[in-house]
Write a structure and sequence with these properties.
3-stranded antiparallel β-sheet; 7-stranded mixed β-sheet; alpha/beta; 2 domains; binds S-adenosylmethionine
Length: 300
């Protein structure tokens, strides 16, 4: 923040003080890019003009908010990670009668449909509730619709196969001219809602949290807050999947996680409870298998 112009800093302060959206802990580089984009998108020549608009017109927040975050995503993004979830995490999820998954920063929903497809193929979808959250209301609306341009199909087919998909990709969507609509059974158990990792709290106990390609936009302190939320939300031996440029080694939450796969950024919530003492709970049988019978202690 300190490297920004005064007007730019005031914009982020105004967003927080007037509208409650706190971007102040995001990385300065990403904030500057967002501001530049918004100025050109809405035709403002200076940051001061944009600030005045934000202060004077309370409806402007609804127009600008969808453009303040980067929503780039794709189906089966980083397919090797999905393959890892399928091979290492799903066998453990199968040992639970019901499963809660939180996809934090789900953007326009491609990650949700990707995971739902693999859960379906493993017979897990029906017993799973997916909590799909994002700060961006426009992205969430699109996620809920599950309608995308048909131009995504070639990459979808390639990534789905690389992720270990076992069916025909076309089983999961219908086409409508140049659009594809994902089948509604994939979202029957998905709950979509706005949740801000900066200001909101944990809302459910989960067996798996995916928060991929979100923390890269945050400064360390904010990443730490989000990772703490995930440590609180995950049950003992629950799993966390991060994006391929993200880590938790620096975080105050690191002691609560064991690394399962450093390359694919898969971590497991260990038995340390949040007050810092080790719980002597029984390992889930599938968990022993995953650990090779050992209690891993490393984290990354
Ligand atoms: C680059 S997308 C990643 C989408 C998807 N997880 C993936 O890996 O393809 C980042 C998403 O994080 C969301 N996001 C940014 N800040 C957030 C916050 N404070 N709380 C919740 N979501 C946030 C953005 O709106 C955006 O949809």
């Amino acid at each position: 923040m300190s490297q920004m112009s005064v007007a730019a800093r005031l914009i982020w302060e105004a967003l927080y003080l007037k509208y409650g959206y706190d971007f102040r802990g995001y990385s300065p580089a990403s904030l500057s890019r967002r501001l530049e984009f918004c100025m050109s998108r809405f035709g403002y020549l200076s940051e001061t003009e944009l600030l005045a608009k934000l202060l004077d017109d309370p409806t402007f927040i609804h127009q600008i908010l969808p453009h303040l975050t980067i929503t780039t995503t794709e189906l089966f993004r980083s397919p090797d990670s999905f393959r890892r979830y399928k091979e290492s995490i799903f066998p453990v999820l199968k040992t639970y009668p019901s499963v809660n998954i939180w996809i934090a920063g789900c953007s326009t929903g491609e990650e949700i449909y990707s995971l739902a497809i693999l859960l379906h193929e493993e017979g897990l979808l029906e017993r799973t509730t997916i909590y799909a959250t994002d700060i961006n209301p426009e992205a969430l609306k699109r996620a809920q619709q599950g309608i995308y341009s048909s131009s995504i199909i070639p990459d979808f087919v390639k990534n789905y196969t690389a992720a270990g998909g076992q069916s025909q990709p076309s089983d999961y969507y219908s086409t409508d001219y140049d659009l594809v609509r994902f089948k509604s059974f994939l979202k029957d158990n998905v709950v979509f809602f706005e949740h801000n990792l900066v200001t909101d709290e944990v809302f459910v106990q989960t067996h798996l949290v995916l928060c991929r390609n979100v923390l890269i936009y945050f400064e360390k302190e904010l990443q730490d807050r989000a990772l703490n939320l995930f440590a609180k939300s995950l049950i003992q031996f629950g799993f966390l999947g991060l994006g391929d440029k993200e880590s938790l080694s620096f975080s105050s939450s690191a002691p609560y996680f064991t690394t399962i796969d450093a390359r694919e950024r898969v971590f497991k919530r260990n038995s340390l409870n949040l007050s810092g003492t080790t719980e002597m709970a029984e390992l889930n049988p599938a968990d022993k298998e995953l650990d090779g019978g050992k209690n891993q202690t490393t984290h990354s």
